[in-house]
Amino acid sequence: MTKVSEDFILKNFDEAIDKGYIKAYYQPIVRSITRNISDSEALARWEDPELGMISPMDFIPVLEKHKLIQKLDLCMLRCICDTYRKIKAEGCIVPQFSINLSRIDFKYKDLYDEFMAILKEYDVPVEAIRVEITESVMLDDQGRFREILDKFKDSGFHIWMDDFGSGYSSLNVLKDYNFDLLKIDAAFLKNFGNRSKQMLTAVINMAKVLGIHTLTEGIETEEQYSFMLDAGCELIQGYYFFKPLSAEEFIMHVKKENKTIEPDDETAYWDAVGNFNFLSSNPLEMFISGKGVNGEDSVALLQGKTPLALLEYKDGKTKCVYYNDEYYNRIRQLGYSCVEEVEKSFNDRKEVQHNMMEAVLDKSIENNSVERIDYVENGVYFTIKTKCISKHNDKYMMAITLYTFESDKEKRKTDDILRFNQSVFLTYDIVVLMYLPTNRSDVLFSQATFNYEYADMKLDEAITQIAEREISEKDKVRYLKFMDLSTLDKRIKMNGRIFIQEAFRVRNVYGGYEWKQIRVTKTSDSFTIGYLYTVQDMSDEECELADYLCEKHPKFMTD
Ligand code: C2E
Ligand code: MG
Ligand code: MG
């Protein structure tokens, strides 16, 4: 780019505008999750026929100094409108545009009226335009500035704060004005180490708490992009995706790749997804649609190790649009090699749990609630929680967290207790973990009193089958009452202990029946509620007592 003098700029500016040497370049802004283009920023370029390209960094300060900048910015608006019209005329989807306004623009009293007149002239809706303002604008002449900015905002323009973090007043400005979006300055990405990453996550978290959308500019590498994606930054701008393009290049790209342009009517859908806080330790519970999230302990947030995915759910099929490393590790533990494999087995409803999962997704949508499912697959216990965070027509965005028993601290604790206490199990014939929400059970320990095959059945079916095949005719009715899952929890509560138990005559390997103590104990940690079903021998005296009671006082047989 050519360096030019102040004098050159002042002498040639009017002519450059009139002859079209000053024009808009467009830098596409990409939705981080979809990589589709949602907006594009108009950046001023001065192409002098003799001197070549002149940088805005050179001519903008001069135009500001001499109060000529509004002329440039209104010219940029005309360029945007012209480009908008050209794309529209092709019948293509048009991305939104953002325009930079300078602090000096706001000293120009006709700015708003002229701005609106241009939009009217070109028949461009206000929703198509975002207004970028640098924080330094806000520093002087507060009252006047606010008045004009409110006019823009009230007319439906989205107001973006440009270069957030590059000046010392950012936070103050943020406190005083209700921006729609924070454009995080590329300066944060310099020396992209731990410290700048922590600052970026803190800024994004803060924006989410305030319900403000986020965009990071100056993204140049895959590493920077994927970090910002995982942090939940919604929009990305930078050379990694696009350099600023001339109007011709831009229009050509939009026409050719029109399917990668985000349609207007999906913007609200994605904006709602954008309110979701990826950094939260409790993202599903903390999500309040359209309002950002409640405050949370920021240190906990930065640890952000929640195994998280976003699934788009439509016509009974899911498509994973985002997942983090923690989520990927968990699905590997469950025996899947990639998310596409999980997706496929769900979409084909290969296993019963996929039907259960579908029911859980539907319920979450219907009740606008966090729903969960507990299950065992390949010997790994897992808990999935889901919440619908956005919807558009018949399409729903479901946020998913996936905790597995093997890897998660709290679950490991329970797992260890089970493993190290195998010897305790030796006092039982059989130990089964029952999950009511999924209607499934899992054999933890067995000395072959019952066949293993019961564990392959649905829980309620297994209970009926056991009553039929393993319990003496004399105790069958009582057993079915004892195992009535619908009243289990209530009876345990009424018992005043964490279990209920009764004695039953159970078939032994010789085909006869023996008294056994059957107990159902409620077990839970912070993730899972289960019931331990145990079958234990009784002493000779206890057996005699049971026989006696059964004959003489049958009602005492119930605990
Ligand atoms: P800005 O609004 O923050 O614009 C972003 C600047 O970063 C642009 O420089 C853009 O070309 C550059 N950029 C984008 N991606 C990357 C990247 O990945 N790496 C690096 N190193 N740079 C990247 P540009 O076009 O030179 O504009 C500089 C500044 O001049 C703008 O900063 C804005 O403050 C001002 N400006 C540009 N056009 C206009 C305009 O039409 N009106 C007003 N008032 N100011 C403008
Ligand atoms: Mg800008
Ligand atoms: Mg900027």
Description:
There is one protein chain. The chain has 559 residues and is α/β, with parallel strands linked by helices. The chain has 3 domains: 269 residues, EAL domain (TIM Barrel, Alpha-Beta Barrel); 97 residues, PAS domain (Beta-Lactamase); 138 residues, 2-Layer Sandwich (Beta-Lactamase), CATH 3.30.450.20. 40% of the residues lie in helices and 26% in strands. It contains 21 helices and 20 strands. An 8-stranded mixed barrel has the order 1-2-4-5-6-7-8-9, surrounded by 4 helices. Strands 12-11-15-14-13 form a 5-stranded antiparallel beta sheet. A hairpin with a 4-residue loop joins strand 19 and strand 20. The longest helix is centred in the N-terminal third of the chain and has 21 residues. It is elongated and about 115 Å long.
Radius of gyration: 33 Å
CATH superfamily of the largest domain: EAL domain
Bound molecules: ligand C2E, magnesium ion
| Helix run count | 21
- How many structural domains are formed by the residues? 3
| Percentage of residues assigned to helices | 25-40%
Neighbour order of strands in the largest sheet: 1-2-4-5-6-7-8-9
Query: Judging from the principal axes of the Cα atoms, what is the shape?
Result: elongated
Summing up helix and strand content along with how strands pair, one would put the structural category as alpha/beta
